Amino acid sequence: MKFGIDSCDPVDTPMVDRLKLDENPLGIPVDQTRFRSMVGSLMFLTASRPDLVFAVCMCARYQALPTKKHLEALKRVFRYLKGTINWGLWYPKDTDIALTAYADMRSQLTDYGFVFNKIPLYCDNHSAIALCCNNVQHSRSKHIDIRHHFIREQVKKGVVELYFMATDYQLADIFTKALPRERFKFLLLRLGMKSMSPETLKRLQKGEGE
């Protein structure tokens, strides 16, 4: 492996449960160039490995002044990757793809100009759904930032349709926090990812797969 960690032991999750990374100004500095190169390599993978997104983006925040603490967190992502090297998103040919969104109460939706039929948006907060669907603007909700008002406007236009989803099935959690092993694996399978054998990967590389 490029970064000399091919002999490392694999781990079950890309980030330690409830790990809180910070700037760590008193920490031991590490090679900034190497750290950035490691982050860049992992960023390239996030397009097909959504399970890496949260951990990689958290580490990427500290590229300016990385410390030993940040490097250890980044190395863990590589250790996780070693044990899941055959995993990836699977999009068979001739399969209709429908956009479905999941959001926790901290998420931000952005209008990228795409045109879809009504988008189902699953949220695990009843109050947030009630505010977005209520046509009356109460004084108590005037402090809510622009993210809420954007979603509210899309609901009013009929672009987004909100549904409540129990927290246990909230897929957005895998992109917003470090999760324990069992919960991480539970959500991982619901992202549309699957483990592909080396034979399948070779077939896909040659264009012979689905």
Describe the structure.
There is one protein chain. The protein is an alpha/beta fold. It is 35% helix and 9% strand. The chain is built from 7 helices and 5 strands, in the order H-H-H-E-E-E-H-H-E-H-E-H. The longest helix has 16 residues. It is globular, with a radius of gyration of 20 Å. The relative contact order is 0.16. About 4% of the residues have low confidence.
From the alpha carbons, calculate the radius of gyration and give it in angstroms: 20 Å
Please tell me the overall pLDDT: 80
* Basic shape: globular
Strand order of the largest sheet: 2-3-4
Total helical elements: 7
User: What low-confidence regions span 5 or more consecutive residues with pLDDT below 50?
Assistant: 108-116
H-E order: HHHEEEHHEHEH
List the helices and strands and how they pair.
Layout: H1 32-45, H2 53-60, H3 68-83, E1 87-89, E2 101-103, E3 119-123, H4 126-133, H5 146-157, E4 160-164, H6 181-188, E5 193-195, H7 198-205
Parallel strand pairs: 2-3, 3-4
Antiparallel strand pairs: 1-5
Helix pairs in contact: 1-2, 1-3, 4-5
Give a summary of the structure in a few sentences:
Helices cover 35% and strands 9% of the residues. It is of the alpha/beta class and 210 residues long. The strands form two sheets. Strands 2-3-4 form a three-stranded parallel β-sheet. It has a two-stranded antiparallel ribbon with strand order 1-5.
Sum up the structure in keywords:
35% helix; 210 residues; 7 helices; globular; two-stranded antiparallel ribbon; alpha/beta
